[in-house]
Amino acid sequence: MGMNTLQNKAHEVERRLRAAYPDALCSLQYSDPFQLLVATRLSAQCTDARVNLVTPALFAAYPDASRMAEADLGHVEELIRSCGFYHTKARNLIDMAQMLLAVYGGRVPDTLEDLIRLPGVGRKTANLILGDVYGLPAVVADTHLIRIAGLLGLVHTKDPAKVEQQLRALLPPEHSNDFCHRCVLHGRAVCVARRPRCANCVLADICDFRFQ
Ligand code: SF4
Fold first, then answer.
1. Which pLDDT tens digit goes with each residue over 136-192?
2. Which of 101, 132, 163 is the endpoint of a domain?
């Protein structure tokens, strides 16, 4: 399939998912950029639902970068324990807050290059911040997105950085961030891992997997 055709297909998939899931909200709960950064760091190897149970108490104790920068490691660990990998995550949250203050004046940066310098922040988190906080074109290469883009035949790799790069080239930039949220919703509701419900899928007639 040529690039142009693949791009047309990506645009069609995007339109259909936008119609199927009009509310493309991030499922993490937060009230400012710093909190989204914290919640996203916690969500690695953990469900968003679990993170949302933990963050209210965490944000009550450490509402911003300056409070988090001075936090007691043991106390942060205790608050986030149920998210798993709590030692590394707690260390990252404190280091991240300290770097935000020291280098960025307490403000969450708005470029991928600056964001991925923060301790524990990878491309996935950085893209989420760019898209959801700053409204910039972003592709969050989450496990659902990687799986679904592969099944559809939009990408032929599972490497997150490559999926991100290839979808960036295929998707309309103004919709790419919401597209990723919609893939998460679709991946939970219909295109479930290892048991996709293709009979109920709005993409079935244009999906490569469906026609294997
Ligand atoms: S047709 Fe099946 S495999 Fe393809 S996107 Fe839909 S649910 Fe997933």
1. 999 999 999 999 999 999 999 999 999 999 999 999 999 999 999 999 999 999 999
2. 132
Please give the Cα distance from 43 to 52 (Å, whole number): 9
- CB burial class (10 A; 0-12, 13-18, 19+) of residue 31? exposed
Q: Which two tokens stand for residue 23?
A: 């509310």
Same domain, 55 and 102: yes
- Residues of the domain holding 146: 3-25+138-211
**pLDDT tens track for 20-36:** 999 877 889 999 999 99
CATH of the domain at 17: 1.10.1670.10
Report d(CA 48, CA 70) in Å as an integer: 26
Q: How far is the CA of 128 from the centre of ligand 1 (A)?
A: 24
Polymer length in residues for the chain: 212
Q: Is the pTM of this model over 0.90?
A: no
- Does ligand 1 come within 6 angstroms of the Cβ of 149? no
| 138 C-alpha to ligand 1 centroid (Å) | 23
Residue at a domain's end among 132, 160, 194: 132
